[in-house]
């Protein structure tokens, strides 16, 4: 499995996990979506530099 496909799958799973629709995650605040944002920025930088 190529690295980009694996990264896309992991990012989709993180995005689904960051949705505050389940009772146990309602009071997490912006933490999970902030982490997803940081991961997306790092991934975008790696793509622009040609590392991925």
Structure in a nutshell:
This protein is mainly α and 52 residues long.
Description:
Keywords: Membrane, Transmembrane, Transmembrane helix. The chain crosses the membrane at residues 28-49. It holds the Pfam family DUF3309. The chain has 52 residues and is mainly alpha-helical. It has one domain (3-49). It contains two helices and no strands. Helix 1 packs antiparallel against helix 2. The longest helix has 19 residues, at 31-49. The protein is elongated, with a radius of gyration of 13 Å.
Which secondary structure elements does this structure contain, and how are they paired or packed?
Blueprint: H1 3-18, H2 31-49
Helix pairs in contact: 1-2
Please give a handful of descriptors for the protein shown.
single chain; 52 residues
**Element pattern in H and E:** HH
Mean pLDDT: 74
> In total, how many beta strands?
0
- Morphology: elongated
The end-to-end distance, rounded to whole angstroms, is 14 Å
The helical percent reads: 55-70%
Q: Please identify the structural class as seen in this structure.
A: mainly alpha
Q: Per DSSP, what share of the residues sits in E-state strands of 2 or more residues?
A: under 5%
Count of discrete domains: 1
Sheet of most strands? none
Catalogue the unreliable spans. Answer: none
Question: From the alpha-carbon coordinates, what is the Rg to the nearest angstrom?
Answer: 13 Å
Pfam families: DUF3309 (PF11752)
Transmembrane segments: 28-49
Keywords: Membrane, Transmembrane, Transmembrane helix
Organism: Aquamicrobium lusatiense
